[in-house]
């Protein structure tokens, strides 16, 4: 999977929970998906529109009322939904808010080896310094990444590496990125 595509998918907070729910068998209608994800109606609608726009979801032709449409995963969406489901199950219920942040999954994906701040930023071209700093700090607080300082370098530089849940998610997303899980 291309990192740019992953950044695009995770740019809406409820995209991964919606995809994971559909993969796990929740019916593709608004009410069951809202219940499964816990999203607000507005955020849910924006995430659904986004997933349709990028080609991961489509309206199920011939099913559902015009005011209560039914949705289904596209072929490409099924692969991404499987990945989203694996990520959701690895993170546990108490960490769902961290997963809904735009940069959590992309940052974990590029942290397949210990890296400095500038290396991470270089791999995620569109991330701002502030967004990266906040993402790293929030994941460090949850013990998903570890920040260590390399005293051998002058000036000393922090190095970030994944641990615990962060390492498991990195392994899953890294494998998907390396194998071209989703072709655009």
Automatic annotation (TrEMBL):
Residue ranges constituting the HTH hxlR-type domain according to the UniProt record: 90-184
InterPro entries, per the entry: HTH_HxlR (IPR002577), WH-like_DNA-bd_sf (IPR036388), WH_DNA-bd_sf (IPR036390)
Transmembrane segments: none
Keywords from the named record: DNA-binding, Transcription, Transcription regulation
UniProt-recorded name of the protein: Winged helix-turn-helix transcriptional regulator
PANTHER family, sorted: HTH-TYPE TRANSCRIPTIONAL REGULATOR YODB, TRANSCRIPTIONAL REGULATOR, MARR FAMILY
């Amino acid at each position: 999977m291309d990192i740019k595509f992953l950044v695009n998918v995770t740019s809406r907070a409820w995209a991964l929970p919606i995809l994971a729910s559909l993969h796990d068998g929740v019916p593709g209608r608004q009410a069951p998906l809202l219940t499964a994800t816990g999203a607000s109606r507005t955020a849910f609608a924006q995430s659904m529109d986004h997933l349709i726009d990028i080609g991961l979801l489509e309206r199920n032709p011939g099913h559902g009322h015009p005011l209560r449409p039914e949705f289904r995963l596209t072929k490409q969406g099924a692969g991404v939904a499987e990945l989203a489901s694996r990520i959701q199950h690895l993170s546990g219920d108490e960490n769902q808010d961290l997963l809904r942040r735009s940069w959590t999954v992309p940052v974990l994906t590029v942290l397949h080896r210990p890296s400095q701040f500038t290396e991470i930023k270089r791999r995620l071209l569109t991330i701002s310094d502030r967004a990266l700093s906040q993402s790293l700090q929030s994941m460090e607080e949850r013990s998903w990444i570890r920040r260590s300082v390399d005293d051998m370098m002058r000036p000393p530089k922090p190095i970030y590496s994944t641990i615990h849940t962060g390492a498991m998610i990195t392994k899953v997303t890294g494998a998907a990125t390396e194998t071209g899980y989703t072709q655009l």
